[in-house]
Design a protein that fits this description.
- By secondary structure, this protein is mainly β.
- It has no helices and eleven strands.
- The chain is globular and about 45 Å long.
Length: about 130
């Protein structure tokens, strides 16, 4: 089992920036594809960014392209989401997710059902 812990959320004004972190204390962190999802009040959980095992392959949902940057530091067992030019529409609980890749896959995964482990979430609130 993998326990994921998100941090870095909070309240920020529109146009501001925030860096989210996800710590994954596993001995096999490089055997997991990772992702950031978010869920706004009254809405379904949606993909924000996805990373393959190395962070060399990435996916971003259209609404955050050019503003958000996902990365991972496998030596530190940590995934990051740098969020810039934040908008009120970005307000949501942000979740870190992990998927085991026992088949040596080099791809990222974009779908909710493809992930095995989830963090508790960190609230990001963007005021207008």
């Amino acid at each position: 089992q993998v326990q994921l812990v998100e941090s870095g959320g909070g309240l920020v004004q529109a146009g501001g920036s925030m860096r989210l972190s996800c710590a994954a204390p596993t001995r096999t962190f490089n055997n997991y594809a990772m992702a950031w999802f978010r869920q706004a009040p009254g809405k379904e959980r949606e993909i924000v960014a996805a990373l393959n095992w190395s962070g060399g392959r990435l996916y971003y949902v259209d609404s955050v392209k050019g503003r958000f940057t996902a990365s991972r530091d496998n030596a530190k067992n940590t995934v990051y989401l740098q969020t810039n030019s934040l908008k009120p529409e970005d307000t949501a609980v942000y979740y870190c997710a992990a998927r085991a890749i026992l088949d040596y896959s080099d791809r990222y995964y974009e779908n909710f059902d493809e992930y095995n482990y989830w963090g508790q979430g960190t609230q990001v609130t963007v005021s207008s």
